[in-house]
Design a protein that fits this description.
Layout lengths: L6 E5 L4 H12 L3 E6 L2 H13 L4 E5 L5 H15 L4 E4 L14 H29 L2 E6 L2 H5 L5 H21 L4 E8 L5 H4 L3 H9 L9 H12 L10 E4 L6
The protein binds NADPH dihydro-nicotinamide-adenine-dinucleotide phosphate.
The site of NADPH dihydro-nicotinamide-adenine-dinucleotide phosphate has 28 residues, from helix 1, helix 4 and helix 7.
């Protein structure tokens, strides 16, 4: 197993891509610290994982709340002694064209998608620093690379996350810590399920592989980036998008 004796913290873990990442790392022996705003779903996931023989600790937390984030990290460290992998996955959309976008839609998306990663990275880093080891994987998006109609807030948050990751990668590389992004294309999850049929069709038309991706296809790349096989990879953006953007 790849991650025996490793501890992985995943945000937005209760469904979709975050859930798939949690299972992927857990099946390789990692102990999971599961973070999400959805308490019931999180606890249900932790018990399903326990039944499958995976140690998982659920923490209800909003990634935008920096004092709660520090609390979660300190509690996890007290219980598990370390955090080897941090997966900043929690993300939201509030889509509309800029002319109609409310200030709160801008602030909320930037806060969850970008400040959430800042909050968790800052809280976890000091422990990774003393361990002189760590893997941070930030879930960006194809939209952060190519832009998208009706998603100025989301695209800015994901492009920001890429700049954040490259800068942090430079700051911590000498301490044995890598920081990378995975940029998914269109992945079938509860987030994309709610999109109108015509939007889904339009996406399908621009995906050379002519299908949507699965959460597991993203999770396997995260697993690789957390593994020793990726020991010399940092500051990179790995696209998982069926060729949608090259
Ligand atoms: P989902 O909406 O299915 O899952 C995201 C989870 O994060 C939900 O449980 C959500 O709760 C939770 N969450 C939202 N806000 C917070 C918060 N403030 N604090 C803690 N948890 C929170 O999304 P996906 O699985 O589709 O997406 C996961 C990541 O991948 C996101 O960052 C997304 O931007 C990115 N991505 C997704 C793509 C896709 O096609 N699905 C494509 C490219 C990138 P709640 O449901 O209550 O909001």
């Amino acid at each position: 197993m790849l991650f025996e004796n490793k501890v992985s913290l995943v945000t937005g873990a209760s469904q979709g891509i975050g859930e798939a990442i949690s299972w992927e790392l857990g099946r390789e022996g990692a102990t999971l610290v599961l973070v999400d705003v959805q308490k019931d779903k999180l606890e249900a996931l932790a018990s399903r994982m326990a039944e499958a023989g995976i140690k998982a600790y659920p923490f209800e937390a909003d990634v935008t709340n920096s004092s709660r984030v520090f609390e979660v990290v300190e509690q996890a460290i007290q219980q598990l002694k370390k955090i080897d992998h941090l997966i900043n996955n929690a993300g939201i959309t509030r889509d509309t064209i800029l002319l109609r976008m409310k200030e709160e839609d801008w602030d909320l998306v930037l806060n969850v998608n970008l400040k959430g990663a800042f909050n968790f990275s800052r809280a976890v880093l000091k422990h990774m620093f003393s361990a002189r080891y760590g893997r941070i994987v930030n879930i960006a998006s194809v939209v952060g690379l190519m832009g998208n109609f009706g998603q100025t807030n989301y695209a800015a948050s994901k492009a920001g996350l890429i700049g954040f990751s490259k800068s942090l990668a430079r700051e911590v590389a000498g301490r044995g810590i890598t920081v990378n992004c995975v940029a998914p294309g269109y992945i079938s999850t509860p987030m994309t399920e709610k999109l109108p049929e015509e939007v889904k069709k339009a996406f399908l038309n621009i995906i050379p592989m002519q299908r949507f991706g699965t959460p597991e296809e993203v999770a396997r790349v995260v697993k690789f980036l957390c593994s020793e096989d990726a020991s010399y990879i940092t500051g990179q953006v790995i696209s998982v998008n069926g060729g949608m953007y090259m």
